[in-house]
Design a protein that fits this description.
The chain is mostly helical. 18% of the residues lie in helices and 0% in strands.
């Protein structure tokens, strides 16, 4: 498993965690974000499994969370990870005739 940018999938090969201002060399997205953290889980409260962490509103924006640990996982494009949300939005559109 590799560490990679949440937005484009570019691998992060440097040792340790990225700093607050570090960005992806390919797409320039912030790297120290909730979406790259091993504690990020969209199914739990505040979308974070670390109970001691301060809530972060912008999950794709750089933050100062002291519990950040760059996740090692298989990268999937965002469209695949949000298929459940997309299906729910389609059902709402059909329901309201949009």
């Amino acid at each position: 498993m590799k560490r990679h940018c949440h937005q484009c999938g570019e691998p992060w090969s440097l040792p340790g965690n990225p700093g607050r201002g570090e960005v992806c060399m390919k797409c320039r997205a912030d790297l120290r974000v909730c979406l790259n953290c091993q504690s990020y889980d969209p199914l739990v409260a505040q979308q974070c499994r670390e109970r001691r962490a301060e809530p972060v509103l912008e999950k794709a924006a750089g933050n100062f969370c002291e519990y950040f640990e760059f996740a090692r996982k298989e990268w999937k494009p965002r469209a695949q990870t949000d298929s459940r949300e997309a299906a729910a939005r389609e059902q709402l559109k059909k329901l309201f005739g949009d």
